[in-house]
Amino acid sequence: MDLKQIAKDTAKTLQSYLTYQALRTVLAQLGETNPPLAHWLQNFSAGKIQDGEAYIEELFLEKSDLALRIMTVREHIAAEVADFLPEMVCTGIQQANMEQRRQHLERITQLNLSSPSPETPKTDNI
């Protein structure tokens, strides 16, 4: 297990996700202030946001002002969440793992109540 590579891959994924969140924020702002530009950005961004850096590079070629705006918002979001993100991730994984284990334990220990159990023969007291 290469923890350094895992950390790099995680950081890249998080960076792309923050780019996506910055895009959503900018789209909401533009929706209020400049709907035609918001529509253009929405169409431009469709299917391109998987790799945040490649997306930003391509957006720079089309509309550098929007690329700069998204980068600024992304940086702001990262600064706001960076302090509590590691603890939230660890706590979230611990809670999710505990819930998955609980559900698994319930499944494997459940009796099959849908099939009738053999009844004991009744005796007549005469």
Automatic annotation (TrEMBL):
Q: Which cellular component, as a GO term, is one annotated location?
A: carboxysome
Q: Name one Pfam family in it.
A: RbcX
One annotated GO molecular function is: protein folding chaperone
Name the domain of life this protein comes from: Bacteria
Query: Biological process GO terms, please?
Result: carbon fixation; photosynthesis; ribulose bisphosphate carboxylase complex assembly
Q: Please verify whether the record's keywords include Ion transport.
A: no
Question: Which InterPro entries does the UniProt record give?
Answer: Chaperonin_RbcX_sf (IPR038052), Chaperonin_RcbX (IPR003435), RbcX (IPR046381)
Q: Which UniProt keywords apply?
A: Bacterial microcompartment, Carbon dioxide fixation, Carboxysome, Chaperone, Cytoplasm, Photosynthesis
Locations listed in the record: Carboxysome; Cytoplasm
- Leader sequence segment: none
Keyword Flavoprotein (UniProt): no
Q: Which family does the entry's similarity section mention?
A: Belongs to the RbcX family.
Quaternary structure, from the entry: Homodimer. Interacts with the exposed C-terminal peptide of RbcL via its central cleft, contacts a second RbcL monomer via its peripheral polar surface.
The record's note on its domains:
The homodimer has 2 functional domains, a central cleft essential for production of soluble RbcL in which the RbcL peptide binds, and a polar surface which plays a role in correct RbcL subunit arrangement.
Function of this protein? An RbcL-specific chaperone. The central cleft of the RbcX homodimer (RbcX2) binds the C-terminus of an RbcL monomer, stabilizing the C-terminus and probably preventing its reassociation with chaperonin GroEL-ES. At the same time the peripheral region of RbcX2 binds a second RbcL monomer, bridging the RbcL homodimers in the correct orientation. The RbcX2(2)-bound RbcL dimers then assemble into the RbcL8 core (RbcL8-(RbcX2)8). RbcS binding triggers the release of RbcX2.
- Give the protein name, as stated in the record: RuBisCO chaperone RbcX
Instruction: Please name the source species.
Output: Trichormus variabilis str. 'HINDAK 2001/4'
